[in-house]
Each structure stands twice: as C-alpha cells, then as structure tokens.
Amino acid sequence: MRKILIGLLSVALFAGGSAVAQANSVVTTIKPLTLIARAVTDGIEQPVQLLPDGLSPHDYSLRPSDRQRLKQAELVIWVGPAHERFLAGLIKNGPGTLNVTALPGLKRLPRRKAEDGSPLPGSLDTHVWLDPDNAILIARAIAEDRARRQPALADRYRANAEHFAQTLKTAWQPLQQRIAALPRHEYVAYHDAYQYLEKSLNLHLAGSLSSETESRPGARHLLAMKKRVHERGITCLVREPASGAGLLQQVAGPKDRIAVLDEGLRQADSFVGGLTLLGQAMEQCLGR
C-alpha cells in the first residue's frame, strides 16, 4: 500500500509540474518589461528582473549572479543593444532572447535634438514601451514565445495577453479624449524621454534642456528655452524623478507647472496603472 501511495504521489507531482512553467524561466532587464511580462505570465510563472529599480541600464555592470541567471533563463526579454548596452556583447538574438526593438510592427522613433526637436538620423529612441500599442505588441510576443515553449499553457498565456491589451485600451482611450479637449498640448522636458507617450496623446514637444539625463545644458541653451517658454505661453514642464528640478525652475515662469514623470515606472505595481498615471500627470500639467 505504501509503495502504491508513493507511486501515485510521484505521478501527481509530475503531472502538476507539467502544468506550471519552471520558476525563474523568464528574465527581464528593466521594470517596464517586467510589468508587461507579469501580466502575460500571471498565475503561471513569475518573471525575474535583472536590474534593480533605479539603476541605469546604459552603464550597469553585471554581477556573477546576474550572469548565472541569464545563463539559466529559458527566455531573456530586453529592450535591445541601444538601451541595455551592457548586454550587447553578451547575448545575441535567438530562440532564448526577445529583443523588443527588433519586433516586427513595433513603432520606432528616432532620438531628437534638444534645441529644436528635429530627428537625429540613424538613431533610436529606446523608450518604446511608452506607446500603448507597442506595449500590447510586446505582451503578445511574450505570450507567443511562452506558448511555443509551454504548449499545455498556451491558451492561458494568450488569454492573459489579450486581457492586458483590453485593459490598457480601456484605460487609455478616455485619457486620449480628455487630453484632446485641452486647449494646450505643448510642453518642455528636461530630458526627451516621453516621445512615444507624446505621440500617443497627440502632444508636442517644444524642446528639451538635455539630450541625455547625464549631461547638463549650457547657459545659452537655457536662455533660449526660457525665451521660448515665455513667447509661446508654455505652462507645462516635465522632468524625471532624479534630475532637472533646479534647471527647469530657471526656465519656468512663476505660474508654470513642473510635472514629475517616471518613464521607468519604478513605483508602479502594474503596467497599465503606471502608464495611466504618467498620462494623467501630463493631463494635469497641461490643463490644470
């Protein structure tokens, strides 16, 4: 009897293991991708994030434990070599990686000059997740990859991705309508990180103080931006949580508003909630 019970238990454990994906089989690099992956894998597996929140993906140094995690992962989801530069020489596009910026159908925009917002030829703005359509495309790509690797769970992955898509659309469309009704749609940013959000909400960037978060604008550029803000009657200025506060104050007028938008969604519990909060912050900045 004991042998029979042990045998039945072993069969049950094996069957249960086939219905649930392996732990830590999905590794993401940054918080926005983690949030999208969580929505797709909800109730099935838990993605592991490589970079701690708040650290820059442009100059991160891998630890031995990070390398081991990447080696053991069934799927590594990253934005691409233009964003996570520290991975560019370590992983290659293949069946074990999902390079988001290489996805067919993804909206890609060039980086822009701080002075006038004109495009920089041959460049790529890597904040692609800030466009809701891109986020949905990424979710569906993750679902299809996991479905191929876990055929028994394919319907659950795909259903999760479609639920994510519908939830995001439902939250975003009213925001688009409210912002469309505002009298002003022009803003100035400390760092030009919101282009995909801007295009989705039909906004217009009047200029940015810095092309990179690490570089400081010169006095001449600050004066030019201050003049532009005054002449155009721009009342909304935007910065990231850890940069630009003092410099934007030099450009802003006494009644202008400065909104803090975290494009990295570091405090968000869900992607839909985090992106919606960014849009609402922009709405309040433009129309309050």
Number of strands: 8
User: What fold name stands as the CATH topology of the largest domain?
Assistant: Rossmann fold
Q: Helical proportion?
A: 40-55%
The major beta sheet can be summarized as: 4 strands, parallel
Shape call = globular
Integer-rounded radius of gyration: 22 Å
GO molecular function: metal ion binding
Protein name: High-affinity zinc uptake system protein ZnuA
InterPro entries: Bact_metal-bind_prot9, ZnuA-like
Keywords: Ion transport, Signal, Transport, Zinc, Zinc transport
Q: Can you offer a commentary on this structure?
A:
This protein is of the alpha/beta class and 288 residues long. It folds into two domains: 20-171, Rossmann fold, CATH 3.40.50.1980; 174-287, Rossmann fold. Helix content is 44%, strand content 11%. The protein is built from nine helices and eight strands. The chain has helices at 2-18, 31-41, 64-72, 132-149, 154-180, 195-200, 219-232, 245-251, 271-287; strands spanning 26-28, 48-49, 75-78, 97-99, 186-191, 204-210, 236-239, 257-260. The strands form two sheets. It has a four-stranded parallel beta sheet, covered by helices on one side. It has a four-stranded parallel beta sheet with strand order 6-5-7-8, with helices on both faces. Strand 1 (26-28), helix 2 and strand 2 (48-49) form a beta-alpha-beta unit. Helix 2 (31-41) packs across helix 4. It is globular. Residues 1-19 have low confidence and may be disordered. It holds the Pfam family ZnuA.
